[in-house]
Each structure stands twice: as C-alpha cells, then as structure tokens.
What we know:
The complex is a heterodimer.
Chain A: E1 5-7, E2 10-13, E3 19-24, E4 31-37, E5 44-50, E6 53-57, E7 64-68, E8 74-78, E9 87-94, E10 102-103, E11 107-111
Parallel strand pairs in A: 2-11
Antiparallel strand pairs in A: 1-3, 3-8, 4-5, 4-9, 5-6, 7-8, 9-10, 9-11
Chain B: E1 3-5, E2 10-14, E3 19-21, E4 24-26, E5 33-39, E6 46-52, E7 60-61, E8 64-69, E9 74-79, E10 88-98, E11 101-106, E12 110-115
Amino acid sequence: xxxxxxxxxxxxxxxxxxxxxxxxxxxxxxxxxxxxxxxxxxxxxxxxxxxxxxxxxxxxxxxxxxxxxxxxxxxxxxxxxxxxxxxxxxxxxxxxxxxxxxxxxxxxxxxx
Amino acid sequence: xxxxxxxxxxxxxxxxxxxxxxxxxxxxxxxxxxxxxxxxxxxxxxxxxxxxxxxxxxxxxxxxxxxxxxxxxxxxxxxxxxxxxxxxxxxxxxxxxxxxxxxxxxxxxxxxxxxx
Lengths: 112, 116
C-alpha cells in the first residue's frame, strides 16, 4: 500500500504570497493532521481533520487554514507568507479509532 | 499543557553497541500514549515504537525497546545492536485523545550518529 504522499516536495515563495500544500492519506485512513517543523525543532501541530471537519487546531494565526475533501485528501493554505513560515510541513494520516499517525515525506517551504 | 523534554541534543554510539535516549514529559492525565519517531536525513518521519500509559509492560519492537516509568514521567528508548541505518533524529512524542482531537506533542529531538 502507498504511504502518505505530499506535494510539492519543495517550493520557494516570496513574502506576502500565499501557498497551498497537498496531502493524500494512506488508503483507509480518514483523519489527516498537519504539522510545521522548523529547522532544528520537533514538529508542531497545526490542524487535524476528520470526515471533512476540523477536529483540532494548534496555536497558529488565522493565516493558516486547511480543508479535507470527500476522498480524505487535504490542503493546507497559508496566506500573507512571512519569513518565519519557512519550514518543513508534514502531513500525517490515521484511522480515527487508532492513535498511530503515519507521516508523509513533507513539503519544504522557503520564504524569501 | 503537555510538554516533552529530550535532554540529549546529540549522541553517538559505535555500531553493534547499545544506546539509550532519554525523554521526560509533563502531564496531569492518567491515560495517554507515548511514541518514539525516527527522522533520517531523508526527512520521512517513521514510527519506531509506541506505549499506552495504561499498560505496565514495556513495549518492544525488535532491537528497539522502551523503559516506561509512569510515576517518574519518563520514557526512554533503548536501541540494541546499533546499525548504521539507525543514524537519524529521534523524537519523543506524547498524545492525549481529547474532544475528538488527536494531537502529537513532540520533544526537540536527539540526533543519533552510529559510527562504524
């Protein structure tokens, strides 16, 4: 079975622009979570979605938003990019009755 | 709020030897889950081992085992017979299912280097 996939692998944006990151969960997994990993730190929780509904939100500004589609894939959107948004963005999927989360390879975002 | 502390930023071990990575956490909850994740230089985060807080028996997965001390809020990872492929960042993580949300809280990580 394919693992969690994310696109794009990396991208470079300019301050003030917006970006959309995409994630496809493992087949059969209905929950998707997003994490931000700044260089040298552990990942920080941004959002969790299940059945297209937001189930959890971390301490991130409203510039960050997400959604989940009927096929359980998900998008993370970030508006008005700041230099501090440069990070590895990780997507993780899980069955909602399971506490195990499986991560994708991440999208490396660089804001210049 | 739950916090996870990994006090060893970097560690090294010789191939075939045993190494232990430390992790402590802070929570007032009684039922929760603990994990160790491995992140090689290729950056894919891989689940290594998990422990349910209500289970007294320490989890084991092949060469990986944990020492879970609930009262001390300690959750260390032991890697036996270290291999070059074990070189990676290791993250300790805590999860509490609450209000329909499952959020992982990570430590800052320990960089492990296995030397030939």
